[in-house]
Amino acid sequence: MELDATAIRALFDELAERLPQSISPQVVVITGGALLALRGIRSATTDIDSISRLSLEVREAAMKVARLRDLDPSWLNNKAQSFTPATFDLATCEIQFATNQLVVLGVSMRDLFLMKLHAARDRDLEDLEQLWAYAAFGSAEETVRAYYLAYPEEMVDEYLADFVRMIAKRSGYL
Predict the structure, then answer these.
(1) 127 & 60 share domain
(2) Ramachandran angles phi, psi of 95, nearest 5°
(3) How many other β-carbons are positioned within 10 Å of the β-carbon of residue 22?
(4) 96/132 same-domain check
(5) 156-163 long-range Cβ contacts below 8 angstroms, 24+ apart
(6) Distance spanning both ends of the chain, measured CA to CA
(7) Of 87, 107, 127, which closes a domain?
(8) β-bridge mates for residue 103, sequence order
(9) Of 22, 48, 129, 130, which is most buried with the most CB atoms under 10 A?
(10) CA–CA gap between residue 101 and residue 157 (Å, rounded)
(11) Is there a contact between 140 and 168 (Cβ–Cβ < 8 Å)?
């Protein structure tokens, strides 16, 4: 099922309604296609990726929403956790949705660009091209420096700057 910004917000509304009133507001940090859809950079996605450890209450509420809406049980997941940059700072996130029971934050566009660059799947290339202007890196070299700070365990790729330049050029900004 394709989830556009309207559908994503509706799912967050339903999720918030199903969270116990007795708990403190749950914070979920999203990334990926859902964040791009909410920001108007992409039209839709098929799931909502989080870098947060989802609490038991959030997971149970998400399962109830999945059953009611006939969604994949993993419509809200934390599979993106392994892509979280070492330089991630919660203070750089922006509120995407908020109620008394649920606060959804989106990673910064710079972090999202670095995460997608790290994943480097074929399907990420179009997103990277769209994100280039929003990430506001000054150059390919600056991007590469930020990448290796974000992922310090990665082996140096002598072609990474060329790949980033290609992304910038295809996005129309170089």
Answers:
(1) no
(2) -70, 130
(3) 6
(4) no
(5) none
(6) 36
(7) 107
(8) 27, 98
(9) 48
(10) 44
(11) yes
pTM, two decimals, is 0.94
Please identify which residue in the block is written with the tokens 């999945």.
66
169 CB neighbour count, 10 Å cutoff: 13
Structure token pair of residue 72: 């994949």
Q: What average pLDDT score do residues 86-90 get?
A: 98
Q: 48-50 and 76-77 as β-strands: parallel, antiparallel, unpaired?
A: parallel
Question: Exposed, middle or buried by CB within 10 Å (0-12, 13-18, 19+), for 173?
Answer: exposed
Range of the domain at 33: 5-107
Residue type present at position 10:
A
Structure tokens at 170: 């295809």
**pLDDT tier at 174 (50, 70, 90 boundaries)?**
low
Per residue in 104-158, pLDDT (tens digit) is 999 999 999 999 999 989 889 999 999 999 999 999 999 999 999 999 999 999 9
CA angle 143, 108, 46 (to 5 degrees): 105
**Tens of pLDDT along 39-80?**
999 999 999 999 999 999 999 999 999 999 999 999 999 999
* Rounded CA separation 172/168 (Å): 6
